[in-house]
Amino acid sequence: MAPTKTIPTFYRFIFTWIDPLVSFATGYGLIFHRDAVLGMLSPLFVPRVKAYDPWLWQVAGGYWIIAIMQGGLLRYTDDLGIWKISNGAVCVMDILITLSTWEMRQPPHNWSMETMTARDWSNVVGAALFAVIRTLFLLEVGFKKQAIKKKA
Length: 152
What we know:
67% of the residues lie in helices and 4% in strands. The model has no long low-confidence stretch (mean pLDDT 89). It is elongated. It contains five helices and two strands, in the order E-H-H-H-H-H-E. The chain crosses the membrane at residues 12-31, 55-74, 81-101, 121-143. It comes from Fusarium torreyae.
């Protein structure tokens, strides 16, 4: 009997409910509430440079792709390979978001840890936490093997 793996409920909830909601809301905010979203991401983005607004549409599109993949594709299939590919790709984004915070601390930005607010820290910790959760998923932490019963 070949072993199969069931996706644990914790991961299923995070990836098919939390991810789509956060991603859709972020994309929506980047289009319709740009100043507020950019201000939440970093004080370095305030005031907003309107010349970059077309780029915000592109970033919003990326977040909506994540919302569709996580909220649609992952609900459509239980194929572990597809789940891993989708979450591996999103994990790359989580890691890059976390690394971008480090870059903002370097010259010419000089965003210091001392001036970071609780909201700033929640963005950093949130992105890092999701990267850790996705990494644990990719490593299959919390998975249980099940034997497939052969029909006679």
